[in-house]
Amino acid sequence: MTEARTPTAIDAIAERWLDTQLDLHPEDRVYIGRTGREGEYGDFSPSGHQASAAAARAALAEISAAEPVDETDRITKLDLTRELELELEKHDAGFWQRDLNNIASPLQGLRDVFDLSATATADDWAVIAKRMSNIPAAVRGYIESLRVGMSSGNAPAVRQVRIGIQQADELGGKSSFFATFAANAKTADGGELPESVVADLQRGAQAAARAYGELSYFLDDELQHEAPERDAVGRDIYALASRGFLGAKVDLDETYEWGIEELARMTAEQEAIAQQIKPGATVREAIEFLDQDASRKLHGTDELRRWMQEKSDQAVAELSASQFDIPEPLRRLECMIAPTQNGGIYYTSPTEDFSRAGRMWWSVPPGVTEFDTWRELTTVYHEGVPGHHLQLGTGVYNKAQLNSWRRNQFISGHGEGWALYAERLMDELGYLKDPADRLGMLDGQRMRAARVVLDLGVHLEKPLPDGSGIWSGDYAFGFMGRNVNMEQGFVDFEVNRYLGWPGQAPAYKIGQRVWEQIRDELKAREGDAFDIKAFHKRALDMGGVGLDTLRTALLG
Question: What pTM, to 2 d.p., does this model score?
Answer without folding.
Answer: 0.91
